[in-house]
Amino acid sequence: MATQQDLELDALVRQVRDPSVADWRSAAAELGRQASASPRAHDEVLDILSSAKGELRLRGVAALGSLAARQPSEAQGYIARILARPDLDIDTLFGDALLSLLALVPLENACALLEEAARDPRESVRAAAALSLGGWHGWDPALLIRLADDVSPMVRS
Fold it and tell me: Rounded CA gap, 57 and 48, in Å?
């Protein structure tokens, strides 16, 4: 038998996943808050971030932002796991949204993750790294020079 907490989590997940729900932001924020204490909510956020649907992945970023505000190290782990998945098609918009959360992660760890993204074989991830540079401070200026010299016109722009 499902507990009240399970039923509430089911409702949150439905609200976040349903494309017809206009006000999904509060549900995504609550899902992110619960991810710090609930293994199931944790897995749901990771699953949404890994979705094939771009809109759903962006909703996952909103959930992750809520988690990052509470537990930056947890968010850092999510970002690293998502970026490390070569099977996941990370478009520039999603990548930029994901990397924008680095502002909530301890600076040393954020810089390391950004460096990894800037060396990713996927052009879109490198372009997202370049886009996200404007969103926070503390990155190495040499990183900007390296991205400006990238073989991809999308990254250089």
Answer: 6
Pair 78, 113: CB distance under 8 Å: no
Identify residue 17 by its one-letter amino acid code. R
Distance of CA 73 to the CA centre of its chain: 13
Q: What is the pLDDT of residues 66-90, one digit of tens each?
A: 888 888 888 888 888 888 888 887 8
User: Letter for the amino acid at 73?
Assistant: S
Q: Quick one: DSSP state of residue 38?
A: -
Instruction: Centre a 10 Å sphere on the Cβ of residue 84 and count the other Cβ atoms it contains.
Output: 10
pTM over 0.90: no
The rounded distance, in Å, linking the Cα atoms of 11 and 142 is 46
Residue written as tokens 């040393």? 108
Q: Could you identify the residue written with the tokens 């949150």? A: 12
